[in-house]
């Protein structure tokens, strides 16, 4: 078992090694389907002892990051759940479907954080109001004072760290920045993301 905690509780039925083994086998299948599963609790219940044919109820609760999924398989009218193994099968099949649905909405969807292009001021020409930025991906990008956030051009120095956006339109000066914003050294990453 790889889950942090697995509990199997018997209610109204004596604990059984065979039933425990079947439940553990099905829990292992759930873990293989969803490695994020970190806690599983299964209740094997026989609530109708008064009747000649006991119908079993299987409750399953699994904990996933930020959510708990639960299944309660109450017996139907067809008396199929007079066999505890069929009740276990049906409950775990329902949980597998629920885990698949959860996985479809939560897996393979990492949060996307677009890191702005960064660089250092390589050259400034205060008289004509332009400069070049050496980006973290090794390019030399032209920028004009009008592209600098606010009135920040005059406060820039060679070696300062900046974030920039590139203009996709062609320019006679080559690639150029459409927006430049000074950033502190703490936010600057020397390697591209």
What does this structure look like?
Strand 5 and strand 6 form a beta hairpin. About 20% of the residues lie in helices and about 35% in strands. The radius of gyration is 31 Å and the shape is rod-shaped. The chain has two domains: about 100 residues, 2-Layer Sandwich (Double Stranded RNA Binding Domain), CATH 3.30.160; about 70 residues, OB fold (Dihydrolipoamide Acetyltransferase, E2P), CATH 2.40.50. It is built from two helices and nine strands, in the order βαβββαβββββ. The longest helix has 23 residues.
Task: Indicate the topology.
Layout: E1 5-11, H1 17-33, E2 39-45, E3 57-64, E4 67-73, H2 84-106, E5 117-125, E6 130-135, E7 140-144, E8 161-167, E9 176-182
Parallel strand pairs: 1-2
Antiparallel strand pairs: 2-3, 3-4, 5-6, 5-8, 6-7, 8-9
Keywords:
OB fold (Dihydrolipoamide Acetyltransferase, E2P), single chain, 9 strands, Double Stranded RNA Binding Domain, 193 residues, 2 domains, four-stranded mixed sheet, five-stranded antiparallel sheet, alpha+beta
Q: In short, what is this structure?
A:
The chain has 193 residues and is α+β, with helices and mostly antiparallel strands. The protein has two helices and nine strands.
């Amino acid at each position: 078992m790889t889950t942090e905690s697995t509990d199997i509780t018997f209610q109204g039925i004596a604990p059984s090694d065979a039933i425990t083994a079947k439940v553990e086998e099905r829990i292992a299948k759930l873990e293989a389907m969803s490695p994020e599963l970190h806690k599983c609790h299964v209740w094997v219940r026989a609530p109708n002892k008064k009747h000649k044919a006991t119908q079993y109820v299987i409750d399953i609760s699994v904990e996933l990051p930020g959510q708990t999924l639960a299944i309660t398989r109450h017996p139907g009218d067809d008396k199929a759940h007079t066999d505890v193994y069929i009740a276990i099968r049906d409950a775990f099949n329902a949980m597998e479907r629920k885990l698949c649905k959860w996985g479809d909405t939560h897996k393979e969807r990492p949060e996307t954080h677009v890191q702005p292009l960064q660089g250092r001021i390589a050259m400034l020409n205060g008289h004509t109001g332009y400069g070049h930025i050496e980006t973290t991906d090794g390019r030399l990008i032209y920028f004009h004072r009008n592209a600098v956030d606010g009135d920040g051009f005059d406060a820039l120095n060679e070696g300062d760290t900046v974030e920039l956006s590139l203009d996709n339109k062609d320019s006679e000066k080559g690639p150029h920045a459409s927006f430049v914003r000074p950033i502190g050294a703490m936010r600057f990453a020397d390697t591209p993301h």
